Amino acid sequence: MPGHLHDLTCAQELDGTAALYWAASTLDLPTLADSGYEGAGQGIHTPHKHTGVDPV
User: Fold this and answer.
1) Quick one: which H or E segment has residue 39?
2) What's the number of domains the chain is made of?
3) 44 by DSSP, 3-state: which?
4) Whole-angstrom Cα Rg for the chain
């Protein structure tokens, strides 16, 4: 897409996320994505941020 747009914005505009939601719910096939897709929704997994603090 032309311009400076966020990855998630482009995926939503082009219905890419709809296909990923369908694959996760129908085929039980979740998507692994980079941190640019954080908050994308159910079935799209992003890395967890490490805070540098070890749990007690």
Assistant:
1) none
2) 1
3) strand
4) 14
Q: Which residues pair with 18 in a beta bridge?
A: none
Structural domain that includes position 16: 7-45
Tens of pLDDT, residue by residue over 30-55, are: 999 888 888 888 888 988 877 777 76
Q: Two tokens at 5? A: 């747009």
pTM: 0.66
Pairwise CA distance, residues 45 & 23, whole Å: 13
Query: Residue written as tokens 């719910």?
Result: 25
- Does residue 2 form part of some domain? no
E strand map for the chain: 31-32, 44-45
pLDDT, tens only, 13-35: 888 888 989 999 999 999 998 88
